[in-house]
Amino acid sequence: SAVWSLxxxxxxxxxxxxxxxxxxxxxxxxxxARAAGLAARLEAxxxxxxxxxxxxxxxxxxxxxxxxxxxxAGGLAELIGRLAQALTEAGRIVVIDTIPERLEEAP
Length: 107
Known about the structure:
This protein is of the alpha/beta class. The protein has 3 helices and 4 strands. The strands form 2 sheets. It has a two-stranded parallel sheet with strand order 1-2. A two-stranded parallel sheet has the order 3-4. The mean pLDDT is 92.
């Protein structure tokens, strides 16, 4: 839904957003962007975050929200590696996620 990226875009007027998600989630992101006056700065990219091709050195900040807890250590390392290649030289990955109270509650 790009809620975190939209919040950053409100603070940083030069920021552009590329939201990657499923089409129905992107529709929500686009509606939120319109409501916030940020629609012109949002690019919606429909696809699967596990497999979609990302531009090399294309992003200054990547917000990885509510994904990490879905992966095992190997899958997470692979994803972070893919994202790192999509960052500019000074780019950063921001992780926002939940952690189950008990490990056995993890999906």
